[in-house]
Every structure is written in structure tokens, then in C-alpha cells.
Amino acid sequence: MIEENIIEDTASDQLFPGEIAGDMADSEENSLISPLSKKGYALLKNNDIPGAKEAFSKILEIEQNNNYALVGLGDSERKQSHFMEAIKYYNECLSFHPGNNYALFGLADCYKAINQYHKAIQIWEEYLIHDDKNITVLTRVADAYRKIHDFKKSKELYLKVIAMEETNAYALIGLGHLHYDFKEYKDALYYWTKMFHSNKDDVDIRILTSIGNCHRKLKTFSEGVYFFEKAIEMDPQNFYALFGLADCYRGMNQQYRSIEYWNRILEMDPKNKVILTRVGDAFRNTGDYKTASEYYHKSLDIDFDIYAALGLALICKGEGKYDEAISRLSSLVHDDPKNFRIYIELADCYIKSNRKNDAITCLESFFKYGIRSTAISELLEKLKNNRPIY
Q1: Across the chain, which distance is largest between two alpha carbons, in Å?
Q2: CA 163 from centroid of its chain's CA atoms
Q3: Which three-class secondary structure state does DSSP give residue 72?
Q4: How far is 218 from 224, CA to CA, in rounded Å?
Q5: What is the pLDDT of residues 169-227, one digit of tens each?
Q6: Which one, of 93, 88, 103, 84, lies nearest residue 63 by Cα?
């Protein structure tokens, strides 16, 4: 729940060709085209798509296959997220005007938008042959390499941008995403914090929540609280900020503070089963099993949630009802056979019921799925060697 937080796109308007329409040769034909081209791009920048398309279409009536009009129509469709239609216009332009940078740029952006990153990269690389210092294109290529998980190429291009423009927002954001995607949270934190300090007076809320999320991952919860609180000051109903703050308080074992923010989410989304389960967990951890059970049941009434079901089993365990807990946990093992936590809790119930051999059998069965768990291996080793468990 983090990767969506930050704007990933570079500014699509940076390469608008409207201004260059005036460079056309001063012929009688072009004297009609130039004003229409300028008008079309001005309307496009103001999001008057129908007006822009009308202006560009008039150009094609004057000069069939005009590159400015074809690119303009492609940009118009792209702005409406009609990517396949936009691709047709850009390709038509390139068939008559090979190497047109604006058509190449728009075409690559369309392929990126429809998740055809390899095609987008190929086109942007062609663009960079003629202009290898174009920051807008470099960040887009870096973004695309990140999407196909080419860490090395992506980082190389982001750093190239940083070398040219030390506080470039898109490169810093991209580097943060890149390292976060690869679970390198300290490095992600470094770049996003640098972005924060370079733009403290007008910081994007997504930077704040992303920095907070790094602290959550690093378990530096108290430091995360600061950034989530700043985000809530900007938008008191921001889901990511409320979730992050609640989770930080959970991590700091301040359950009642976490309940406050979980409930603020539920005020906006009362049927969010994940949050209902989180509130149940918080009340269970304070020992209020009755209220916890109510929240777990609310979650399960919406749809089955393995963690709500696990919470009810753990309430049974907490109340010393080990047979019922074993029954519930055994059922959950069948529902989620690779969830190591369920095996740990089930084995613990067997241990508390003086059924050591059953605990060993339970833990050993986890490994038949070909996965590993340090926690299960350590507990199994203690049981087999009669070492203290607690």
C-alpha cells in the first residue's frame, strides 16, 4: 500500500510542440496552418480537447499528413487516455515524418501507459540518440526500466539525471520507488527525505506518507509518526496517512492510539474488513476479548478474512480454551497452508495442552511445501532437543 502513494509520471506537458509551430516556412498555406496549430496546442494545454481536435482537424484539411496536426491529435487522445487511438496518430505521423521527436515521445508514453514497457524503452532510447541530455525522457526511461525490474539500468539513468539536476523531483521520487521495490528501505528513505528537505514549504503529501512507510518497514515507528501526522495536517481524511499512523502506534504497542486512527478510517469506510480486523487485533492485544470478537465477526460478516478468523482462534487460546483454538487453527492451516504464523500458534496450543509430539508433527508438516521459516525451524529444534520454549 505504498507504491501508489507517489506520483510516478514526469510532466507530460514539457515536450509540447505548440511553440514551435511558428517556425514553419512563411508560405500562404502555412500562414493558415500556424495560427491553427498555436490555437490547438493552447486549447490542449487548457484541457479543451474538443476545441483542440477541431483545430488540428482543420489543419489536415489544408495539408494532409501535417506533422503538427497528427501529433496534436495524438496528444489529444492521449490526454483522454485513449491510448490505442493516440498510437495510430503518432504512427501515422512517423510514417510521413520519421524521427519526429514529439511523435516518438507521445508514442512511448502511450506504450508505457498500457504497460508495454519494453516498447516504450525502445522508442525512448531512439529519442535519446538525438538528445541524450533530455531530463524528461531520461526519467521516463528510468521509470520504465524500474517497471521491468531492471534495477541497474534504472538507477544508472536516475543518477544521470541527478548529476545534471541535483534536486530533480522525478529522479528523487523514482530512486525512492526503485529502492523501496527492492526492499532497500534505508536507501529509499534517503532519497525521499532529500526530496522532502528540498521542498519543505510545499511538500507533496505522497512524499510524507512514503517516508512514513519506510519508517514502518524499518520499524522506526516513532519517526514515522512525525511524517504521518504532517500528512494528516494536510488532509485529515487521507487513508494512507491514517493507516500509517495507526500502524505506527500498533508497532509502538500504543493500542488505544492505534484504535483511534483505525476508527477514523472506519468512519469513512465502515465495511473495510481489513481495518475491522486491525481494530479487533488492537482490542485483543489490550485483553478486551469481547470487543475484539465483535470486530472480528463484523469483518467475517462482510467476507472471509483469514486474519479475523485467526484472531478469534487466538482469543480462544488467550482464554485457555486450547481444544477450540486447536480446532480453529487446524482449519486455518488447510485454508492457508503456507502461513507460518498459523503453524506457530497451533504448535503453541499443542505445547500448552501437553501434546509435544503433535506440536512437532504440526511444525514438520510446514516444510512439505518446500518453503522455509526461521521461526518454525527454531521452535522445532527446541522441541526435539528438549530445550526451554519460553
Answers
A1: 97
A2: 26
A3: helix
A4: 10
A5: 999 999 999 999 999 999 999 999 999 998 888 899 999 999 999 999 999 999 999 99
A6: 93
Residues 140 and 109: beta-carbon distance below 8 Å: yes
**Residues 107, 83: contact at Cβ < 8 Å?**
no
Q: pLDDT tens for residues 234-284?
A: 999 999 999 999 999 999 999 999 999 999 999 999 999 999 999 999 999
> Residue 23 corresponds to which cell in the numbers above?
517556425
SS3 220: coil
Inter-CA distances, 142 with 60, 125, 127, 207, 346, Å: 35, 11, 14, 19, 46
What gap in Å lies between CA 88 and CA 77, rounded to an integer?
10
Q: Using CA atoms, how far apart are residues 122 and 375, in angstroms rounded to an integer?
A: 46
| 28, amino acid identity | E
Residue 65: pLDDT band (50, 70, 90) is: very high
Q: And the C-alpha cell for 328?
A: 480453529
Write the DSSP assignment of 171-200 as a string of letters.
HHHHHHHHHHHTT-HHHHHHHHHHHHHHTG
Q: Are 214 and 189 in contact (CB under 8 A)?
A: yes
Residue 149: how many CB atoms within 10 A of its CB? 11
Query: What are the Cα distances from residue 302, in Å, to 40, 101, 239, 269, 271?
Result: 51, 52, 20, 13, 7
- Dist. CA 362–CA 164, nearest whole Å: 58
Q: How many CB atoms within 10 Å of residue 247?
A: 21
The Cα 376–Cα 83 span in angstroms is 50
CB within 8 Å of 128: residues ≥ 6 apart: 134, 137, 138, 141
Q: Where are the strands (E) in the chain, listed by range? A: none
Q: Is the pLDDT of residue 82 over 60?
A: yes
**Amino acid residing at 21:** A
Q: Give first-to-last CA distance, the chain, whole Å.
A: 34
Amino acid residing at 30: N
